[in-house]
Specification:
The chain has about 170 residues and is an alpha/beta fold. It has a single domain, classed as Rossmann fold, CATH 3.40.50. About 50% of the residues lie in helices and about 15% in strands. The two termini are about 25 Å apart. Bound molecules: shikimate-3-phosphate. The site of shikimate-3-phosphate has 10 residues, from loops. Belongs to the shikimate kinase family. It comes from Priestia megaterium (strain ATCC 14581 / DSM 32 / CCUG 1817 / JCM 2506 / NBRC 15308 / NCIMB 9376 / NCTC 10342 / NRRL B-14308 / VKM B-512 / Ford 19).
């Protein structure tokens, strides 16, 4: 059956460490909706952090789980969903999210991201052992996949509360 715009789940996309989880949680609270973080769902399934899932089972395994969990959740109504920064590498995930949900891209400039790197790098298997130049290249390659969205928020000069309010207002 057709889902009305107001019932659609919201999906947050963007590079690692831009705040998809924190902002998603806050938006969920403001809209009285349930929040789901895809990485956390997968971590619960396997009782281990994503970094360890990558290490023990490999990235392809993780990506398949990611697709499975997102396919399921994105078809539910009224959810606030944050997906991992690599989810939109899979065209199938892009399609499912863009057709069922409202997709918000949380954008941050490379310069701002770089300042936060020490807070982000240790828990992200994809960034391990890469030089800063390498990570910068990855950052810009990923920007291209995030261009598939419905709405975008520039988060550079906003705090978390301001970003969440902006998103909630834009849905009215
Ligand atoms: C990944 C991002 C991570 C997590 C995994 C892979 C990526 O999610 O899914 O480590 O390839 O960008 P966050 O964007 O929440 O860090």
């Amino acid at each position: 059956s057709e889902m009305s715009l107001r019932e659609k789940s919201i999906v947050f996309i963007g590079f690692m460490g831009v705040g998809k989880t924190t902002i998603g949680e806050l938006v969920a609270k403001k809209l009285y909706r349930d929040f789901v973080d895809i990485d956390q769902e997968i971590e619960k399934m396997f009782q281990m952090p994503t970094s360890q899932i990558f290490k023990e089972f490999g990235e392809e395994f993780f990506r398949n789980k990611e697709k499975e969990v997102i396919s399921q959740l994105s078809q539910q109504r009224l959810k606030i969903i944050s997906v991992g920064g690599g989810a939109f590498l899979q065209e199938e995930i892009q399609k499912i999210c863009l057709s069922n949900c409202i997709v918000f891209f949380l954008d941050l400039s490379w310069d701002s991201w770089k300042e936060r790197i020490s807070l982000i790098i240790d828990s992200r298997p994809v960034l391990q052992g890469r030089s800063l130049e390498d990570i910068e290249e990855l950052f810009y390659t990923r920007q291209a996949i995030y261009s598939n969205h419905h709405s975008k928020v520039e988060t550079d000069n906003l705090d978390i509360e301001e970003v969440a309010n902006y998103i909630v207002d834009s849905l009215k």
